[in-house]
Amino acid sequence: WVETRSQILCGPYFYEQLVKWMKRSDIEQLVSQEVETIIAGTDLELVDVEYVRERDWYLRVFIDKEGGVGLEDCQAVSEKLSEFLDVKDPITDKYLLEVSSPGLDRILKKDTDFVRYKDRDVDVHFFTPYKGVKSLTARLVGKDESGVVHLLIDEEDAAIDSKDISQIRLHIDF
User: How far is CA 11 from the centre of its chain?
Assistant: First the structure.
């Protein structure tokens, strides 16, 4: 009984069942861990991973480095990640893999983003209106340990809980 049970819990059957039960967040976490392994020892940084359904399923990996990523960087990560995904096969749905730069108007998610882009203009979008508006452009002052984002809005200091903010992106002036 013990031998049979351990084969079920640790064998290929268990892995197949686990894959079927994986949620999007689990897939994103698994892919994030693998990308971190792939880029270890390089000057690349993992910005974000998202597994989303639009018309089709997309597995998007965003990487960056000082001075910006090039096509070669994206291709190298894509090829190595594809090998991993082909062997482990953690995603049961058909999907498209995209590896790219986060773009000039990148979303700020990690605490390090709030340090790196301090004193830059950002576009802030709220879940519910803040002082009557759903979005605004402000100067990023920082984010504290408790998750409060500090902004300079029209030369006034504002402290807004990150739970009230749906998205913060770098602002681009055209």
Answer: 31
